[in-house]
Amino acid sequence: MTEKILILDFGSQYTQLIARRVRELNIYCEIHPYNKIPTLDKSIKGVVLSGSPFSVREEKALKPDLTNIKGKYPLLGVCYGAQYLAHFFGGEVAPSNSREYGRANLNFVNSENALLTNISRNSQIWMSHGDTISKIPDNYQIIASTDDVKVAAFQISGEKTWGIQFHPEVYHSVEGQVLLKNFVVSICGCTQNWTPDSFIETTISELKKKIAGDKVVLGLSGGVDSSVAAVLLHKAIGKQLTCIFVDNGLLRKNEFQSVLESYKGMGLNVIGVDAKDKFYSELKGVTEPEKKRKIIGRVFIEVFDA
What we know:
Helices cover about 30% and strands about 25% of the residues. The chain is α/β, with parallel strands linked by helices. The strands form 2 sheets. A 9-stranded mixed beta sheet has the order 2-1-3-4-9-8-7-5-6, sandwiched between helices. Strands 10-11-12 form a 3-stranded parallel beta sheet, with helices on both faces. Helix 4 crosses helix 5 and helix 7 runs antiparallel to helix 8. The longest helix is centred in the last third of the chain and has 17 residues, at about 290-305. About 35% of the residues are buried. The mean pLDDT is about 95.
């Protein structure tokens, strides 16, 4: 069973970057929506709560169910994740006097705390938030501050639960990778023996067992995600896989044909479907971007089903 770090996504532009930084440490991780937490088992070594463009003060704040996570797995809240852990457990989050965005320096660092081992005083970090933690619950300890942000990092007493107001995953947080390594290696106990190559091997092996003699139909968009899924499936089950590549008429000039040929060159069993006219007729007169996206998604599924 591959050990993993679970990242719960609240819609931050940086969530994928957290995953990338964890994987650069040779540790496997998965991103899941905050409200679709997968089955928690022994393979999960720790959990990260991402940032978010939303505010914990909003009526419709994004609220994960941490019942089976907080206090049971090592937990790190980043930005929104930290504010969630403060605001909904007895603390307070308030609007910042000015939006805190850009470089800052830690003028106080509790370097004896496991999360902040080898983090320098005055270490440069990256802030990106409109709210600030104005009050922490009684059992929370402040472990780092900046000139403007008193609660830059905290730990809950007696729990392997931390919150940080800054973004360690971005390049501008100079020692951010040190902090992430402290969390996933020293605190979570990950062994750093995962590589993308091993992921490919184990994925192909698992797919072979799971699919056995069944046949699979896969919808190709021409993008990276579905193409990678197709290649992995093809390596696992070969001609049992049939791919359907739909021309929605919105690709670059001649791109459908060139991508279709590329898929065939990879050895994929692929059917190309010219559905341009159907998409054009459904999209005619529609200008609102979200409506367009929903129409494109719906028509793709209809063409795929047909």
